[in-house]
Write a structure and sequence with these properties.
The chain is α/β, with parallel strands linked by helices. The chain has 2 domains: about 200 residues, Glycogen Phosphorylase B (Rossmann fold, 3-Layer(aba) Sandwich); about 170 residues, Glycogen Phosphorylase B (Rossmann fold). The strands form 2 sheets. A 7-stranded parallel beta sheet has the order 3-2-1-4-5-6-7, sandwiched between helices. The longest helix is centred in the last third of the chain and has 18 residues. It binds ligand GMT. The site of ligand GMT has 20 residues, from α1 and α4.
């Protein structure tokens, strides 16, 4: 199949899933065309079945904001026509779904019907998308997609709860490529960061408000008050300065390291004993699943789709959003007994295996076939129209 994939090329979860999906599809022989404003962060190696098309746009003095959606839709039209794509798969509704609809309408006038699938990832529904600034367009674009998927049952529920959806929604969870995410021996690295074999807690995110990174620090303080341990904060974003100020106020600066944006998170997860994800809202929590694949148990909030991956009392623990005392108590329960820690690590890996890319990728492939079959009448009609003009 010739598939176009549109996503944010940044470190955010939706871009990571879209890129790993594209790589997995390419490994299975599909031809994958990425259409994004810069090279996706996880597109880190050449692949004969992967093509990259940059969305560029001419700015103009009249524009206060460059019309990215217009440039994106135009680029979609160009690539779909020239590369003869069969399907478009856009990740994150804003503005990708409405741009795809616009491109579809333009091409219809030229006798080409390109079905497009919208995958909803989280904040496009639970945060940004439901804001009246965007919700009318998001609702329209979801309802006019030829296929809609969400990354969790929870997000499917949220979508129907927050939008007037007339379309069906398929749940296809995020996944793990175990070629990349497996625990590696990094003892030398661990010794550098924890010279006295202290336990290591870790958080990875884009440091947006929704991640509640301050709760990671506050719960760490309560754990550190009771035992020697280290905290690694990975990633960067708008909340970083605020979190650094909190670290200085709690007096454990020597035990907290900010590592910034890291490409090879799996190398860092190899030395972690506990992953902390206290988000306000989280449609799935891909970072937590990646930790579990590296045998790291998870202390998280119980929001959104997290309970669909983190099994309370088995792969870690979940607490109400903001309950840092409960998070600290649960962290101590796991970290203070090596036998318990070992059991939770083993459980985390077993649970992560259920989301192996080799199980999830066929769900996307089958869905593509289903959407193409359901769109066949429209594809033929558009083709007949083109031969009649
Ligand atoms: O987590 C982020 O802030 C990035 C965000 C995104 O929209 O790119 O991630 C969302 O998509 C990920 C991949 O599907 C999910 O694992 C995250 O849970 C989800 N983030 C939120 O819902 C806050």
């Amino acid at each position: 199949m010739k598939i176009g994939i549109v996503c944010y090329p940044t470190f955010g979860g939706s871009g990571v899933v879209a890129t790993e999906l594209g790589k997995g599809l390419a490994d299975k022989g599909h031809q994958v065309h990425f259409i994004t404003y810069s090279e996706p962060a996880r597109l880190d190696a050449f692949h004969s079945n992967i093509f990259y098309h940059e969305v560029t746009f001419q700015n103009y003095a009249l524009f206060q904001y460059a019309p990215y959606e217009t440039a994106l839709a135009s680029r979609m039209v160009d690539i779909i026509k020239f590369e003869k794509l069969e399907l478009l798969h856009v990740h994150y509704a804003i503005p990708h779904a409405s741009a795809a609809y616009l491109a579809q309408q333009i091409l219809k006038d030229e006798g080409i019907y390109i079905p497009f699938i919208t995958t909803l990832h989280g904040t496009d529904i639970t945060l940004v998308g439901k804001d009246p600034t965007y919700s009318p367009v998001v609702t329209f674009a979801i309802n006019h997609s030829d296929g809609v998927t969400t990354v969790s049952e929870s997000l499917k529920k949220d979508t129907f709860a927050n939008f007037k959806i007339t379309n069906e929604i398929e749940v296809i969870p995020n996944f793990i490529d175990f070629k990349r995410f497996t625990k590696k021996n990094k003892e030398h690295f661990r010794k550098l960061l924890a010279p006295n074999d202290e336990k290591i807690l870790m958080h990875i995110s884009n440091f947006r408000k929704v991640k509640r990174v301050e709760d990671v620090v506050y719960m760490f303080k309560e754990v550190r008050d009771k035992m020697d341990c280290k905290l690694l904060l990975v990633g960067d974003g708008p909340e970083r300065n605020h979190v650094e100020a909190i670290c200085r106020s709690i007096g454990y600066c020597d035990d907290i390291r900010f590592l910034g944006k890291q490409e090879a998170v799996e190398e860092l997860l190899a030395i972690a004993d506990l992953f902390v994800l206290p988000s306000e809202s989280e449609s799935f929590g891909l970072a937590a699943l990646e930790a579990m694949a590296c045998e790291v148990p998870v202390i998280s909030s119980n929001t959104g789709g997290i309970p669909e991956i983190n099994i309370n009392g088995q792969t870690g623990f979940m607490s109400d959003v903001g309950d840092i005392h409960d998070m600290a108590k649960n962290a101590l329960y796991i970290l203070q007994d090596d036998e318990i820690l070992k059991k939770f690590k083993a459980n985390a890996l077993e649970q992560a295996k259920k989301f192996n890319i080799h199980q999830i990728l066929p769900m996307y492939e089958n869905y593509y076939v289903k959407v193409l079959e359901e769109a066949s009448a429209k594809i033929n009609e558009a083709h007949n129209f083109s031969t009649s003009i």
